[in-house]
Amino acid sequence: MRIGFAVIFLLSFQIVNAQWKPTNGLVGFTVNSFAVKDSTFFVCTDSGIYSSSDKGMNWLAMSNGLTSLKVNALAITKETIFAGTAAGIFNSTDNGSNWLSVLTNTSISSFTISGTNIYAGVNSGVGGIYRSTNMGINWVIINTGLPSLPVYSLVSKDSCVIAAIVGEYPQPAGIYRSTNNGSSWSIATQLPEGACALSSSGDIVFATLGLTGVVVSTNNGLLWTWQNLNGLPQTFVTSIFIYGNYVFAGLQGGGVYKTANLGQQWIPVNEGIENKYVSAEYVWRNYIYAGLRKFYVRDSSNNAVWCRPLSEITNIKTEKKEVPEDFVLEQNYPNPFNPSTNITYSLPLREFVTLKVFDILGKEITTLVNEEKPAGEYKVQFNATNLPTGVYFYRINSGNYTETKKLIVLK
What is the C-alpha to C-alpha distance for residues 278 and 63, in angstroms, rounded to an integer? Predict the structure, then answer.
């Protein structure tokens, strides 16, 4: 009898704990989108950018130059991060620590990158799309064939770019498509209120239609099928995210729903989540994340980002840790810092590694690593308790690979 009770109790405990959990450091915010660069996880909010170095469990502000500014989206290249804000486009070459304005007087809703082209959607005034062909140095408007309406979301594959455009009937809102890198556009499907969010994977593209559900294309946006809700409650569908065979939809007041059959049937996966006004989803390192939207004063006490193991709501197996493709030395985080910071580096093969810290005059301060390491990703903590405020440098040597980055002690 006691054994039976213990088994039932254990099963009940496991069921109760299979649910969404709040993360730390973001309370009372509206989340607009997520992004990842190397081992740093970013979240864009109505009050700047926050980052996490521990899989999104804890968040820290890092919006120097963007503080209190609404940030809608990030575009990430190997060297640069671009932020789409209510005031234009900013870029950062130090992993988000500092930002520089590169396009002003326009509100940017979204980005997509294809090859050397970066596209930015304008969600204010007459809308439009900007394109950069030189990695963000110059931006040119590309509106041939587009209506004068806000562009809310973009996706791309090779030379094909798809835009979700919002408007009210009889304006020609809906989904537009370009097959020549945005040089000209044509309407793929006209929709009464337009489309507000896109997500793509290969040739599959999903678009949200607000109160009327979602549409899906299986041929890279050429033809579209209206899924007619199919299990989604009739409330505003604000966001969409494709991962593997699964698609996750965020609803205004309805939480998170999933489908594994291209939207033929949607199932709620809301266990434990408090505020069901979901504005963004993301999957990273075996977890699914939900960003929430702040609507009321009472929301100021609510956590803005929630997460749960992906395996709880899908049959996706835990990803195996992959061998890095190249040598990488990440920017330390946090930076500036006091008294400690983390330095992450990756090795594609077994090598002898040295990692040292120097002062601004080149004098060696300490050696953090001095040994042979197998291929993999490593994190080292550097404690600067005994160092004065100032600029320092850390350098890695591994085989023929050498790289140096700057860190700042601020007390």
Answer: 23
